[in-house]
Amino acid sequence: MGFKLGGLPFFFFFFLLWIWVLFSVASAARFHSPSRQKFQVQKHLKRLNKPSVKTIQSPDGDSIDCIPIKHQPAFDHPFLKNHTIQTRPNYHPEGLGSGLFGDSKVKVNSKAEPRSNPITQLWHANGKCPEGTIPVRRTKEDDVLRASSIKRYGRKKHRSIAKPRSPDPDLVNESGHQHAIAYVEGDKYYGAKATINVWEPRIQQPNEFSLSQIWILGGSFGEDLNSIEAGWQVSPDLYGDNNTRLFTYWTSDAYQATGCYNLLCSGFIQINSEIAMGASISPVSGFRSSQYDISILVWKDPKEGNWWMQFGNDYVLGYWPSFLFSYLADSASMIEWGGEVVNSEPDGQHTSTQMGSGRFPEEGFGKASYFRNIQVVDESNNLKAPKDIGTFTEQSSCYDVQTGNNGDWGHYFYYGGPGKNAKCA
């Protein structure tokens, strides 16, 4: 009589075990199969791409869907199911008029004197969205497949924030993100403003990006960091091309589980029918040629507590409801302006991905990239010049920053660089 295990012949037990292994392998294969992945991607695309009343084809290949304002991705959030849309802010920061903020997009001549020039996103060439809708850049299957996972699509990596005066600079560099920024801290801030020079920096690797933005920060630089961000970026991984695009970002837990770019998750509520988050902006500045810049303001409505974003003088884009945040539900404790790149160290060397124009700040106007008229919003809802501006960069031989102040530009700085060079390896 054969050996028994728990009353069963050994060979029969082995046979059952083998069947179980085969079943497990088959289940795992089915879970990770291309058909299942495609199903999950299509399911995600259906969540993001809401039914539209009109679609506009952009010259750059984007499809811009005109979505009824009440059907936008924001309202997938459980806390927004019965939300009454705020169609306009209760208050603007004082001092926004009288030429202080500038036009939505200005062309700057060689004497650095702004003159009016209309804002353009490439899709505007082929139409506009009707009132009562918002323009949403349609997400494609390839966009999602480029991400490391469906869950991570549209999100920054953890610890991508600039932390000035860190006791351990190497700790900051571990994330592979590098910065050249100006910043203020030590007070309560209720918003920030800047006019940002627009370029199309060269990106070495598809998984790298280059951006220029404002950060509105609350909390520590640990797991509880709150951040609202807005500016322009070039990100082949996110968009599939090298176009310069308007973007926003938010997080309430240091980029871990909350927040996303643009409208790729529920959160930001858009009210504007003319500007599409994530859409290409044009024209961009040229070396020793015409310079173009965009103006961005983010501020906290003193009455409702929501954080609003305005693009130039004419385009109030929408708001982040205050409940999304913990620290920013009250105020910001730090403001940063400047550039950020991803350095993936291809071939074991520093990336040649450019920040800003790809030129160092000392080259100045027409060559280097700039932020001008940088301001903060105080507790009385007034725009004012920032005090005690600091600067920070992990490696000034790769990307640098230099501040200044004059009558035309107020507080300003030049920033950026080429990345890899003789002194930055």
UniProtKB/TrEMBL annotation:
Gene3D superfamilies: Outer-capsid protein sigma 3, large lobe (3.90.1320.10). It comes from the Eukaryota. It holds the Pfam family Neprosin_AP. Residues 1-28 form the signal peptide. Residues 171-425 form the Neprosin PEP catalytic domain. Keywords: Signal. This is Neprosin PEP catalytic domain-containing protein. It comes from Spinacia oleracea. The lineage of its organism: Eukaryota, Viridiplantae, Streptophyta, Embryophyta, Tracheophyta.
